[in-house]
Design brief:
19 helices; Rossmann fold; six-stranded parallel beta sheet; binds alpha-D-glucopyranose; 477 residues; single chain; alpha/beta; nine-stranded mixed beta sheet; binds adenosine-5'-diphosphate
Length: 477
C-alpha cells in the first residue's frame, strides 16, 4: 500500500471551476478502491460546500504565519481531505483564483506559496499528523513550489507533478522570490527563475521526480512551441520522465442511468427516453419544443482555449439551418457579449446561459444530440467523455485529449463499430462548419445515429484503468 498526498487547488464537489476539480474529486477515490491510502490537501476557501464541517487538527507555523489544518472527507467516501485554513488568505467570497467579480486575487502568489509550504510540511511529517506519504502528487502551478521545496529535504517523499494546463503558469515579478522568502538555492534558470521572473510551474517541471499530463497526445504537444508556452525545451529535456495518462470520469456523478439532475434516466438500451431530456431542456431554456430538431450543446469556460471564436463565426450560418444551440458558460466578457447578441437576435434558435450551473450542465449533456468542443488546445477535456457517456455525439478538434478519446465517424470506423463522434483538424470556422453539416447528415439517418450513440455509450472511460497507471508510476518512482 502506498501513502499518497494529493495536492490540488480545487476538488469537486467542495469547490470547482473546471476539470481539475473533477479529477481531484475522483482519482483519489479510485486509488483508494485500489487499496491505497490517499489524503487530499487543499485550501479552506469560504465557498467550500457539500462536505461535513472541517474538524480542527493542529496549527503549523510557516514563514511567520500560524496556519490551521482541518479535516473533512470527500462526500460518500472515506477519503480524508485536509483543509489548509488561513482566513486572511482564503476566507473570502469568490473562487480560488478570482473574487466574485472575476478579478484575479492580487495576492494569489502569496496564497499559493503559503499553501505549498504547508503541503511540504505535511509531506515531511512535520505537521503533527503522524503520517508520512511515500508520494506527493501535485497538480498545476498552484502546487508547483512543493517539489521545489521538497528537493531541499533529506528523506523526502517522491514527487509527481501533473500538468492540467500549460497556459496557466503562475509567473510573478522577480522580487516575488524575495517577498515570498523562498530559499535562495531555488533561484536560478534551471530552477524557479523564468526570464528573470518567478515561475511556480517551473518548480513542478524542474524538481518533480516525474511529470505527467492528462493525455498522451498533450504530452507530445507540450514539447513543441505551439503548446509549450516557452517551456517546450524544458519539457523535451524531461521527455524520459514525462508521460500522459488520460483522465477518467466519475461514474457516480456522470451516468445517465442514475443522474438525479436530468428529467428522465436512460441507458443505451432505453435510448428512446433520452428525448424527454431534450424536451425538458427546451422548456427550461425557452426554446421551441421540437423533439426532431437537432440540438447542439456546449458547456465550458469562455476562454480562447475552448475555440468559442470558431463557434461564433459559425453561428450566423447555423441560424439558417434547422437546429437549436444551447450554451452554458462564463469567462471572457467580450465573448459573453457577442454570444448574448446572437441569443437576442435568434431567440428561437440560440440559448445562451452565462454563469456556472451544475444542474443545467447535466441537463445539457442529457438533452442535446451533439456537443461542440472545438478547442484550440485541450489537455484532456472531460465534457467530450461525459457527452459520449450520455449518447450525445461530440464534435471536437483533433488536439490533446479530444484526439485521444473521440473516434471520427468515417466509413471504416462506422463499419467496425468504433465511431463515436466527429473530429476535424484545422482550427478554422470552415472546418467546424463542414463537420457540423457532416453530423447533421448522419443525424438524419436515425438508425445509423443510434448505432453511433450506442458505440459512444459503451466506451470505457472509468477511472480504474488510469488509476492503475498512476499506481504503477508511484511504485516506479
Ligand atoms: P477545463 O478544465 O479546461 O475547464 P474540462 O472539460 O476538463 O475543461 O472540464 C470542465 C468541467 O467544468 C466539466 O465538468 C464541465 O461540465 C464543468 N463546467 C465548465 N463550465 C461550467 C459551467 N458554466 N457550469 C457548470 N459546469 C461547468
Ligand atoms: C484542465 C484542462 C482540461 C482537463 C482538466 C482536467 O483544466 O483544460 O483539458 O480536462 O484540466 O485534467
Amino acid at each position: 500500500m502506498k501513502k499518497i498526498l494529493f495536492a490540488s487547488s480545487e476538488t469537486h464537489p467542495l469547490i470547482k471551476t473546471g476539470g481539475l476539480a473533477d479529477v481531484a474529486g475522483s482519482l483519489p477515490i479510485a486509488l483508494t478502491s485500489l487499496g491505497q491510502d490517499v489524503r487530499v490537501i487543499m485550501p479552506n476557501y469560504q465557498s467550500i460546500r457539500n462536505c461535513e464541517a472541517g474538524r480542527y487538527l493542529c496549527t503549523v507555523r510557516v514563514n511567520n504565519c500560524d496556519v490551521n489544518l482541518l479535516e473533512t472527507h470527500l462526500p460518500n467516501s472515506n477519503v480524508i481531505v485536509w483543509l489548509v485554513d488561513y482566513p486572511a488568505f482564503f476566507n473570502h467570497p469568490g473562487n480560488p483564483y478570482t473574487d466574485e467579480n472575476g478579478i484575479p486575487w492580487h495576492d494569489i502568489g502569496d496564497r499559493f506559496a503559503l499553501f505549498c509550504r504547508i503541503v511540504a510540511e505535511v509531506a515531511m511529517n512535520r505537521a503533527y499528523l503522524d503520517w508520512k506519504p511515500d508520494v506527493v502528487h501535485c497538480n498545476d502551478w498552484q502546487t508547483g513550489l512543493v517539489p521545489a521545496l521538497l528537493s531541499l529535504e533529506e528523506h523526502r517523499p517522491a514527487t509527481v507533478f501533473t500538468i492540467h494546463n500549460m497556459a496557466y503558469q503562475g509567473v510573478f515579478p522577480s522580487n516575488a522570490h524575495t517577498l515570498l522568502n523562498l530559499p535562495g538555492q531555488l533561484w536560478h534558470p534551471d530552477g524557479l527563475e523564468y526570464h528573470g521572473m518567478l515561475s511556480f510551474i517551473k518548480g513542478g517541471l524542474s524538481y518533480s521526480d516525474w511529470i505527467t499530463t492528462v493525455s498522451p497526445t498533450y504530452a507530445q504537444e507540450i514539447q513543441t512551441p505551439e503548446f509549450g508556452y516557452g517551456l517546450e525545451g524544458l519539457l523535451a529535456h524531461r521527455q524520459h520522465t514525462l508521460s500522459g495518462i488520460i483522465n477518467g470520469i466519475n461514474d457516480s456523478v456522470w451516468n445517465p442511468e442514475t443522474d438525479p439532475h436530468i428529467a428522465r434516466n436512460y441507458s443505451s438500451k432505453t435510448l428512446g427516453k433520452k428525448v424527454d431530456n431534450k424536451t425538458a431542456l427546451q422548456e427550461k431554456l425557452g426554446l421551441p419544443i421540437d423533439p426532431e430538431l437537432p440540438l447542439f450543446g456546449l458547456i465550458g469556460r469562455l476562454v480562447d482555449q475552448k475555440g468559442i471564436d470558431l463557434v461564433l463565426n459559425c453561428l450566423k450560418e447555423m441560424t439558417g439551418m434547422p437546429l437549436q444551440f444551447a450554451l452554458l458558460g462564463s469567462g471572457d466578457n467580450s465573448i459573453q457579449l457577442r454570444l448574448q447578441d446572437f441569443a437576442r437576435l435568434y431567440p428561437d434558435k440560440i440559448s445562451i446561459t452565462i454563469g456556472y450551473d451544475e444542474n443545467l450542465a447535466h441537463l445539457i449533456e442529457a438533452g442535446s444530440d451533439m456537443f461542440l468542443m472545438p478547442s484550440r488546445f485541450e489537455p484532456c477535456g472531460l465534457n467530450q467523455m461525459y457527452s459520449q457517456r450520455y449518447g450525445t455525439l461530440p464534435i471536437v478538434r483533433k488536439t490533446g485529449g479530444l484526439a485521444d478519446t473521440v473516434v471520427d465517424a468515417l466509413p471504416d470506423t462506422i463499419k467496425n463499430g468504433s465511431a463515436s463522434g466527429f473530429v476535424f483538424k484545422e482550427a478554422a470556422p470552415g472546418a467546424l462548419m463542414e463537420t457540423i453539416k457532416r453530423a447533421l447528415v448522419l443525424h438524419a439517418n436515425q438508425p445509423l445515429w443510434e448505432e453511433l450513440q450506442r458505440n459512444a455509450m459503451s466506451k470505457d472511460f472509468s477511472w480504474e484503468n488510469s488509476a492503475n497507471q498512476y499506481l504503477a508510476l508511484y511504485r516506479e518512482i
